[in-house]
Write a structure and sequence with these properties.
Layout: H1 5-21, H2 36-52, E1 57-63, H3 67-73, E2 79-84, E3 88-89, E4 94-96, E5 104-113, E6 130-140, H4 151-156, E7 161-166, E8 179-184, E9 187-193, H5 203-214, E10 224-226, E11 234-235, E12 246-251, E13 255-262
Parallel strand pairs: 1-10, 3-7, 4-13
Antiparallel strand pairs: 1-2, 5-6, 5-10, 5-11, 6-7, 8-9, 8-12, 12-13
Bound molecules: 2-oxoadipic acid and magnesium ion.
Residues 63-64, 69, 73, 106, 138, 140, 142, 147, 154, 159-160, 228-229, 233 line the site of 2-oxoadipic acid.
Length: 271
């Protein structure tokens, strides 16, 4: 059953407050799933609230495009979330854990969209709008306690999006089988291949177009698109060396991207 407008607003506010105050909340579903169209309405309201605070939309992200991620989180269908400039950390820059609840990091690839995509045109192919690819890191931080959520819950929470880092852009090339490695400090924490992302991350773009069309999410010139993690996400905690180290992702043929993790001044990030 779909949510009323009042319920959509209430839930968007709850999730937005959870993010700004770094206090986790409990999912709406209690295990039961709720309707996906309503979940994207909550996400849209949440994002318009962030935009009205001055954040600028700069791209989109796909989630649950690899089996490793599906298995880790128990969600088996692709989701789409929205990125803003407030989430954008420069390559080699600092990620401040203050203000995050229980961040995790995952290695990804990113696409750059060169022109507006007309989602009403059934022949539209986003793949032809891509003019560059890059290695990327995504930092996710579910606003739900212990990362426990249903499919609709995680969509409403803007797919756990918290921060991202894009490496050097390079010309488009085949992405179906490039080795991926993620290190935290001197330790390799995950290895995989770009082929783990839907067989080829480029396939994510067709799913992105379908979901964006269905839920009225625009795809604009200049947008960055994160294709989804190639491996399971790794918590940024003291145990993983992730609260004072450098996280690096390397995608063979595309290069590397890194971020320095700094413990929050107010002690965030370790819960
Ligand atoms: C949801 C975000 C999933 C990915 O790359 O699969 C995602 C989560 O795991 O909390 O970003
Ligand atoms: Mg991701």
């Amino acid at each position: 059953m779909s949510l009323t407008d009042g319920e959509v607003v209430e839930l968007a506010h709850e999730l937005d407050d959870a993010q700004t105050s770094a206090h986790a909340v409990t999912g709406r579903s209690g295990g039961e799933d709720w309707d996906v169209a309503s979940a994207y309405r909550v996400q849209r309201h949440l994002m318009s609230r962030r935009h009205s605070r001055g954040e600028r939309p700069i791209g989109l992200k796909l989630g649950f495009t690899s089996r490793a991620k599906m298995r880790q989180m128990g969600v088996h269908e692709v989701i789409v979330g929205q990125l803003t400039d407030a989430m954008d950390v420069p390559d080699g820059g600092e990620l401040d854990l203050g203000g995050l609840i229980h961040p995790r990091v995952e290695p990804e690839v990113a696409f750059r969209i060169a022109r507006d995509v007309d989602l009403d045109d059934p022949r539209t192919s986003i793949a032809t709008a891509v003019d560059a690819v890059a290695p990327a890191l995504e930092i996710i931080d579910s606003r739900y306690r212990d990362f426990r959520f249903s499919y609709a819950d995680v969509i409403a929470d803007n797919t756990s999006a918290a921060a991202f880092v894009i490496g050097p852009w390079t010309a488009v090339r085949p992405l179906d089988n490039l080795a991926v490695r993620m290190d935290i400090g001197p330790r390799t924490v995950s290895v995989g291949t770009t082929g783990a992302i839907l067989g080829d991350p480029i396939r994510g773009l067709r799913l992105l177009a379908e979901i964006s069309r269905r839920h009225s999410i625009p795809i604009r010139a200049g947008d960055v698109v994160l294709a989804g993690a190639a491996t399971a996400a790794v918590p940024l905690t003291e145990g993983t060396g992730g609260t004072g180290g450098t996280v690096t992702a390397q995608v063979s043929g595309l290069g590397r991207v890194s971020v320095r993790v700094v413990p929050g001044r107010n002690g965030g990030g370790a819960s």
